[in-house]
């Protein structure tokens, strides 16, 4: 595909590097030559210019673009460049916005009419992930499919797990109500075979169905984890504010924010007596302790500073908080936080990349796709077409690319797990886990 990215800042940089490795034709526009100079080792073309300049758009041949992504720091420039790019021939345009009202579904048709096929509001994407992460205290990551009937759970395994050190061929069979689709062990991601086994401290990814989540909880030794009812937030910036609007209503929430104006804004926008706003610097450990840190079930650090968020979560862990969530923008810090056993890591770049992946593979046979930063993997939901390769042989004989595995499917509205003998039928919605950017190779199996 011919992809043009406008803006070589956080999200644009991450996307450009990621997509250039996937054999797409990528062009990157930015007005700062110093920003562009960092891409000498990547297979992409850079253009120094204003993304909203007609001349620049002509130079990058925007008329031939399959996808135009505007992710500069300037919201107006993103929208205006998309308007022009679409008028000049770009097939699909995506703009990053900084205003929550632009991301409302009620305005989607207006932007579509003006030439913006999709808007990205990273703070809202992060907020939804934070809220989802608080629902299960014992899970690092949760991805829902088909109205949460089919779920992917990322779980850190401890010594209490009952399923350690047993080959998967002996642990799992056609009747086992979960499927191990990936294992993150140190810096390595493993798509397991029958002779692989789960080890202590692995971050294991399980596909299961909704009704068997309690069963899986026992198998991984997490039944003693207390469900989250009391949570502390550090920071009430844009991401924190959106997350507070998304968290389940049954939670008791304490928020530490040192900026009085932000405190007032939260109080004005969230009319809920379960949220206690404290005008205080949450980096003051004694303040956290005084407000009951030791009896808190979950701790969310979402300040604008990655170091603060990491240290705050480590402090919460020290005081016995089971569930910690850290918003970390720097990719190097994000990977370090995983190794430090911080808990759930929320990275807006990865979330934005996932959103844009959906635009890249937005064909009739692709229903959804997510990017998992911690595993460097994609989870794609494909629809099997009549006569496609996946409908001609059982799963074990399909010859899927190395690093790919099928975790589950939905047949006639019923969610079910997949084994080697499963025969996929036309119209089935199939969940595929793909490591190391193999998702584009799998797509052909479903057409």
Structural write-up:
The chain has 447 residues and is α/β, with parallel strands linked by helices. It has helices at residues 10-20, 33-36, 54-59, 75-87, 108-114, 122-133, 168-171, 213-219, 238-246, 260-269, 285-290, 306-318, 331-339, 348-360, 439-442; strands at 2-6, 25-30, 45-48, 67-70, 93-96, 118-120, 141-145, 150-156, 178-185, 188-190, 203-209, 230-234, 252-257, 275-279, 298-301, 323-327, 344-346, 366-372, 377-383, 404-411, 414-417, 429-435. The model has no long low-confidence stretch (mean pLDDT 89).
Per-chain topology:
Layout (H helix, E strand, L loop, with lengths): L1 E5 L3 H11 L4 E6 L2 H4 L8 E4 L5 H6 L7 E4 L4 H13 L5 E4 L11 H7 L3 E3 L1 H12 L7 E5 L4 E7 L11 H4 L6 E8 L2 E3 L12 E7 L3 H7 L10 E5 L3 H9 L5 E6 L2 H10 L5 E5 L5 H6 L7 E4 L4 H13 L4 E5 L3 H9 L4 E3 L1 H13 L5 E7 L4 E7 L20 E8 L2 E4 L11 E7 L3 H4 L5
Helix pairs in contact: 1-14, 6-9, 6-14
Amount of helix? 25-40%
Strand order of the largest sheet: 3-2-1-4-5-6
Radius of gyration over C-alpha positions, nearest whole angstrom: 22 Å
**Low-pLDDT runs:** none
- Count of helix runs: 15
Main beta sheet strand tally, sense and closure: 6 strands, parallel
Q: Note the beta-strand portion.
A: 25-35%
- Structure summary, number of beta strands: 22
SS-based structural class? alpha/beta
Q: Calculate the terminal CA-CA distance, rounded to whole Å.
A: 17 Å
**What is the overall silhouette?**
globular
Mean pLDDT: 89
